[in-house]
Amino acid sequence: MEISCIIIDDEPNALSLLEKHILKIPSLNLKGKYFDALDSLELLRKEQVDLIFTDINMPMLTGLELAEILPKHQKFIFTTAYAEHALNSFNYHVVDYLLKPISFKRFLQSVHKTEAMNFADTASPDNMTNPKKVMFAKSGKQIVKIDFDDILWIKGEKEYVSLQFKNERLLIYKRMKEMEILLPLHFRRIHTSYIININYIHKIEMNHVLVGNQNIPISKSYKDEFLRFLNEKMV
């Protein structure tokens, strides 16, 4: 599935890095790159692109202001050097946001989220308003319908993942990396073996998250990104 995209960033080095990342992925088709969001409008008036990579904080026209004037279905991946600027980005059709400097690994995760969202849009027109509400998965000899909102946490079990619900546990044949791509933004990986639904967090203390009645560890490799995410939600 080809994804057409453009880059908008007033920082030449940041724009160049994104371009290099995009050119490494065959499914991405770069249609243009701009230092000013105003300059991108000429292309966007003529044709639709699947995805816009744009900095949030720019002179003349910010990334958020651009999102306000474009159609609501336009997909964005926002980039920023300041985590606090990403807070309001979730008011729009945002696939993800990337904190600068952007590693290729983190960039690739965002592209996978876009691909999963596009697949859901194609598979069911009803998913345009909520593209990742449910999925179907094989568990043993059954195919089961899974509502993402009902999942408390996910644990990796080698070739499988176990999905923990309030009153049951479901084991499905899927790796953690594959599962992570499919999940909505209110799921966060906090450990090699755990992904949690932030809607079920009771408290966070001593490098552990209490989800339901389960204390789940936060590993060092995921701690910084998880804390940045929490800081955006802090009041």
Strand order, sheet with most strands? 2-1-3-4-5
H and E order: EHEHEHEEHEEEEEHEEEEEH
Shape: globular
CATH superfamily of the largest domain: Response regulator
Structural overview:
This protein is of the alpha/beta class. The chain is about 30% helix and about 35% strand. It has six helices and 15 strands.
List keywords for this structure.
five-stranded antiparallel beta sheet; 6 helices; 235 residues; OB fold (Dihydrolipoamide Acetyltransferase, E2P); Rossmann fold; five-stranded parallel beta sheet; alpha/beta
Quick recap:
The chain has 235 residues and is of the alpha/beta class. It contains 6 helices and 15 strands.
Topology:
Layout (H helix, E strand, L loop, with lengths): L2 E6 L3 H12 L4 E7 L2 H10 L4 E5 L7 H7 L5 E6 L13 E6 L4 H20 L10 E6 L2 E6 L5 E5 L2 E5 L4 E4 L3 H7 L4 E5 L2 E4 L3 E5 L2 E4 L2 E4 L2 H14 L2
Parallel strand pairs: 1-2, 1-3, 3-4, 4-5
Antiparallel strand pairs: 6-7, 8-9, 8-12, 9-10, 11-12, 13-14, 14-15
